[in-house]
Amino acid sequence: xxxxxxxxxxxxxxxxVTRVGETVRRPVRPFTLTVQSFLRHLHEHGFDAAxxxxxxxxxxxxxxxxxxxxxxxxPLPDYAVSDDALKGMARLVRRLHDxxxxxxxxxxxxxxxxxxxxxxxxxxxxxxxxxxxxQDYCPGNVVFREGRPVAFIDFDLARPTTRVAxxxxxxxxxxxxxxxxxxxxxxxxxxVVPRVVAAVExxxxxxxxxxxxxxxxxxxxxxxxxxxxxxxxxxxVFRRWxxxxxxxxxxxxxxxxxxQAPRLAxxxx
Length: 269
Hints:
Layout: E1 6-10, E2 17-20, E3 23-27, H1 32-44, E4 53-56, E5 61-65, H2 83-100, E6 131-133, E7 142-145, E8 148-152, E9 159-161, H3 163-174, H4 192-203, H5 207-232, H6 236-268
Antiparallel strand pairs: 1-2, 2-3, 3-5, 4-5, 6-9, 7-8
Helix pairs in contact: 2-3, 2-4, 3-5, 4-6, 5-6
């Protein structure tokens, strides 16, 4: 149980998170030191929209600065599903990428991933990684203030990737690249294609990068089905998610992205 001065922020999911004053405490995992090194690099290179790593406390927990603001929950509020919010997040990802470029992970770096090893292995999203980035822009990992996205939290899945692959993760959650059945109510009937174009333009992808967005999105959506299924076979949290709707949701997303791929590709030109 947390002490009286501790506020439980998350429990029962993948990670238990507690707030103590202006800090956040989390269990130390194999990838914690790598993530803390990455976060230090981001701050040293001008990206202040992430927690500051503060070491380990007397209980052996990771300590990070608390990022004030609103983390949207279901159903997502109107401010979180606006076009301006999406474009703001794309610009924030661009800032993150620009700060991340040039970071050389330590030789003993360990990167987080969801459990399980799909057989056969997942399809690669790229040939060579360009940088390390967040790779998990679900609503619970975005902080808003006054209706604007201002920071990303929970870098547990940060790992080598490319600018396009990382932006596609953002698009999955926030365009969103999902079947209408599984979207937040405020986005259930939205035309996703112009939102994808707006986010890509806000980020500033080159024409060559724009051409990769749809192939990466299609491959990613196929991979997610197999990755989540493998995780469900090993981890009770993922198994609970899989058995309570995730299995059907990821298949719907895969099929929706495949069906919309020609229209998305044409719009991105």
